[in-house]
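Deviations from the work plan: none for this task. Representative record:
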Amino acid sequence: QQQVKQSPQSLIVQKGGISIINCAYENTAFDYFPWYQQFPGKGPALLIAIRPDVSEKKEGRFTISFNKSAKQFSLHIMDSQPGDSATYFCAASIWGNFNKFYFGSGTKLNVKP
Amino acid sequence: DAGVTQSPTHLIKTRGQQVTLRCSPISGHKSVSWYQQVLGQGPQFIFQYYEKEERGRGNFPDRFSARQFPNYSSELNVNALLLGDSALYLCASSQDRDHGYTFGSGTRLTVV
């Protein structure tokens, strides 16, 4: 039983375009939703995270949109750059529960120059 | 500041063998978690340790075990290796239960 479902599996975007990755979760006890960026040969690196008390969080070109009633959240990458080409993972956890993360299956983003 | 360091970076083992993976957390971090990442999938939670005690265990067989030492470093042991254990094993550390985790670059285990 997959706790967090992520789509699409892969995404190709032109430089300057908007990349959108979606995730849905099942467990309503989840209250911490981070996004991780992973380059080949590296571990995941925290990109941005949101708690369910807000519907949107923006950090630079990265924005998380959160819909609590639909149990969905998404990552928007504005003005996508070739350097953004990586695999992106959404995750969910219960904050304070020693942060046991449930990860999505990942989205491989390719930003074309 | 040094990040989370894992050793070795790569290793190849034969089916049935045993392996020990090591993790040194960021200085001051007392919590360590282990994740398995099979190629093309998201990381799966294996273990979490805080202050040298096991605080969480994922859905992995008893062939998987771990421990945390007084200096907060950690080892993950896998016995009776199977081909399906081939994966990137990630270690992550955190100050405590109320902070996020920093991941290491992982150990790539190949079982042949």
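The longest strand of chain A covers residues 19-25.
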